[in-house]
């Protein structure tokens, strides 16, 4: 089995490509939303939830995983570090599959920061800040904006977990945009105008993450874009295209399944 740590648009494309190549594929996602997407895709073994070292080790051993593909979000560095550690300990081939970062043309309204904490130094009182960083950033962003005296508008996934977190942490319901991306330039422009935005927060999410559309919309409306740079990790093996991924998986000698992806055997559940 090939086990994919999923959670991005690229991960679903990678899973489809691996299935089409005849491989038996299992996957892991954090949310019920992601799990539902993979179920529709014909993945018969899905682990929903967060791994620690013990549970990831158990999952890989119980399901006789031959290769671990890490297709998690480029900013989810803790799970990538854990995956590399466990794969090395079990001597299972590890392949990082990651979208390429989008190049940003120099523009006076586009500013790069190393981390979320650095954002606070660039926000001014009474500014209206539109975050496209997702719900995971809220525990840092919400108190930050209160300290600065800025108003925060957040765009998050339209799922129960995200909305509940927004409510629990004190985001005004009027300032929650619950939508599934990526978004067109036209839609970004409409939202930025609707909420009268001064500053937009984003990550280097690449083409499939709608990065260029966000930057272009903001710049044309004279909105400052604060871009959080990608963290850098040293991966033992990396692929940034589907073709490279299939080639590298083939290169480590993974056996192909005789069953179609729609009729894969169910794998051992994690307990």
UniProtKB/TrEMBL annotation:
Keywords: Cobalamin biosynthesis, Oxidoreductase
Pathway(s) the chain acts in: Cofactor biosynthesis; adenosylcobalamin biosynthesis
GO biological process: cobalamin biosynthetic process
MF annotations from Gene Ontology: precorrin-6A reductase activity
Domain of life: Bacteria
Protein name per UniProt: Precorrin-6x reductase
Origin species: Desulfuribacillus alkaliarsenatis
